[in-house]
Amino acid sequence: MAANETTVQEFTVTRTFNAPRDVVWKAWTERAALEEWWGPKGCVIEVEELDVSAGGIFHYSMEMQEGCKWWGIFHYEEVVKPERIVFVNSFSNEAGDITRAPFSESWPKEVRNVVTFHDEGGKTRLELRGQPIRATAEECAFFEGMFGSMQQGFGGTFDQLEAYLAK
């Protein structure tokens, strides 16, 4: 680690889904599926662009319940079907440029996420690990302070994934 880098605790969330790994993988990699389950509970997702490959992006909008529209973008770094997806997640504008989070100037601009898909005899244990990159000490501290909220948020998102997989 370089002298100017800040150490930050990794955020982790794990969930087991009652679906085979290839089905869960498709839910993470297909446009129609992502529009049905990705994002905060109650928001409407629209995929602007999706290329799930190393160097590709997932650029999307989130119409929030309050009526405002937020944008997000994944920059995929590694895609190993059907085992692992590594991406850097950011808030963005409509053009896909990285922006600050609409809810706080202290949220890190970039969070690297590693999603692993574990085959467990017809079920899939999914593990998501996230950590800010190129972040200030203030951003790292804010990120760590949001773990409870993030657990709740991903809980709702994964509830939506579970409902999607049950169809």
Automatic annotation (TrEMBL):
It holds the Pfam family AHSA1. Transmembrane segments: none annotated. Residues 18-165 form the Activator of Hsp90 ATPase homologue 1/2-like C-terminal domain. InterPro entries: ASHA1/2-like_C (IPR013538), START-like_dom_sf (IPR023393). Gene3D superfamilies: 3.30.530.20. Belongs to the AHA1 family. This is Activator of Hsp90 ATPase homologue 1/2-like C-terminal domain-containing protein. It comes from Afipia felis ATCC 53690.
